[in-house]
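Consortium newsletter contribution from the modelling node. Members have asked for a concrete example of what our holo predictions look like. Here is one, prepared for the CDM complex that several groups have been discussing at recent meetings.
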Amino acid sequence: MDLAGWHDPDTMMNDWQDFPAPAKLNLFLHVTGRRPDGYHLLQTAFTFIDLCDTISIRVRADGQIRRVSELAEVPPEADLVVRAARLLQQATGCPLGADLRVDKQIPMGGGLGGGSSDAATVLLALNHLWQCGLDRPVLQALGLQLGADVPVFVFGHSAFAEGVGEVLQAIEVPEDWYVLLRPPVQVPTAEIFSAPDLTRNTKPIKMPVFRDDATRRGLSNDLQRVACRLYPQVATALDFLQQYAEAMMTGSGACVFARFGSKEAAEAVRKKTPQGLQAWVVRGYNVHPLRKLN
Ligand SMILES: C[C@](O)(CO)[C@H](O)COP(=O)(O)OP(=O)(O)OC[C@H]1O[C@@H](n2ccc(N)nc2=O)[C@H](O)[C@@H]1O
Ligand SMILES: Nc1ncnc2c1ncn2[C@@H]1O[C@H](COP(=O)(O)OP(=O)(O)OP(=O)(O)O)[C@@H](O)[C@H]1O
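And here is the predicted structure:
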């Protein structure tokens, strides 16, 4: 997918404008502790992939925020795109509003951060269109109020993350090809984090390097064992992919991925995917397509 040319700053403010919201992969995820409020302390690494939702936005003069597309599972008031727009309005006192249309490509409950990415894209795009002038760290802090995964999408670069995912340092990750599989199940993040058998005391590590297999040794996803126990379809997908390359679950699942040296090698494995699993070949990106927007 070509991510260039998504945004044309010269378009009239009240025309529809399209903004991409890419999915993320967690290249590893260690749970190192738990805060008094129940949220878990993590160490993880995020990179972006070219599986994207598209948010179309039209500025309104009357201050209303409206979602004009259907998303059957999520009522408009609960939709993170609407909540992000409202939050920015409240934080800045901006009198403008927006119509928001979401073309969803990122599966929900997949551990790909689709809802979080949609929210981040709305914060970035409306900050620009409404000319609010908030800088990136302020937008990241606003984003954290919507979800632990929102800040990295605002940050806009592959990152090593600590805290609950909001303490971010930019890292360079090879822009590899991945096979991404979606088992036929949605995994609720809160259910995985609240499982009694979740390992919560993985020893903190120094910032890892992502060069080759050797530098990734010892990095795993602590949420994977619990997700596989509760949702055996995740284990089935991992077993399939594991035949060809080192495979891992992203976030709290359900999606799993493996890295390949070329698009062709990834395609060859995708073609073998058994029925019942949705499969993509995707490319990793270090720089979010809206990184330059401000
Ligand atoms: C698993 C990850 O996707 C890794 O990137 C994120 O940590 C989850 O981020 P998210 O989907 O934005 O999650 P949120 O909407 O903030 O949280 C959903 C629920 O997961 C649990 N949760 C989430 C993040 C975290 N660090 N500790 C938690 O315990 C909390 O019960 C929370 O109510
Ligand atoms: N715009 C949106 N797109 C997707 N989900 C949304 C949206 N707004 C609210 N949600 C809610 O958020 C939940 C999580 O969606 P999301 O796609 O972010 O899951 P996920 O990929 O598992 O995320 P994560 O990796 O952050 O845990 C959905 O089940 C849905 O109820």
